[in-house]
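WARN no homologs supplied; continuing
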Amino acid sequence: MKVIKLLTGRPLPQALSVEELETPTPGPGEVLVRMHAASLNYRDLIVAEGSLSGAQQAKPLIPLSDGAGEIAATGEGVTRWREGDRVVGSFFRDWLDGRFLPKHMQSALGGAIDGVLAEYRLFPETALARMPTHLSFQQAATLPCAALTAWHALFEKTPLLPGETVLVLGTGGVSVFALQFARIAGAKIIATSSSDEKLSRMEQLGASGMINYRARSDWDQAVLELTDSAGVDQIIEVGGAGTLQRSFSASRTGGRVSLIGRLTGIEDRVDPRPIMAKGLTVQGIYVGSVAMLERMVRSIEASGMQPVIDRTFVIDDTAQAYAHLKAAAHFGKVVIEI
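OK structure emitted
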């Protein structure tokens, strides 16, 4: 079988190589998945740079956490799946349900352990969820990380309610999925971007307020203007240190900030006074469990939601897919067909 290997810490594209390995055979409780598509996340760039804590460093790694395929073979004792079932893998192989524990970090695909950029991959039967029936493999491959992160932030702790307002920063995968989920829930959405063209696309997807943060560097004040000074109920915070303070400002009293990314870096100081003065809840979100993935799949299937794919590459063009993601010109997800 063909696999892509990544040697972390080396510059792209030299860090990537194509290898031929023997197709594995599933053991007891395992299934072999014929992977049809995978998708990239910003995390995959961090892994490639060698700066992700907990990622494999000493040997080449099969990259990417997000993939979809069909069951090719089942091992002894498998009861949940049969050959031909269409599935997606869970980002955390071993986080099935309940609280997130330190041990779950050791089962993160494409980081702590090998990922999905291969023609075949073994999974424990418990580490998979059924694909939404209306989606293609390419669409389903976008779900395990970006979509589940957005779902977790909006619904798994304090569920978003109809009529509430959500602020999404930027137009990457998590932010676009958050907009789509918020719209399904009947919420209002405000979106920020440096591109008027991308803001127009967010409006087409359902955003009712658009802010170009290059034109309005005080975008938090623009949010307050759009909400009659009240602020928003939930914020999908993908920027990190460089945007967090303005997110506090844009939040309503008692609002919720879901800290997901660090696109603007990590070296900065954060003033905690707005958290106390407004009674804000700041929650760190790191993808989700298999049970969350299954709940999200049911919602996507019931609503007919369609993931937004920016561009699709073939596996032999993996280096170009990484370069496209790094250029940050994409809208939605970058997918690789396998």
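The CA atoms of residues 230 and 261 lie 25 Å apart.
OK
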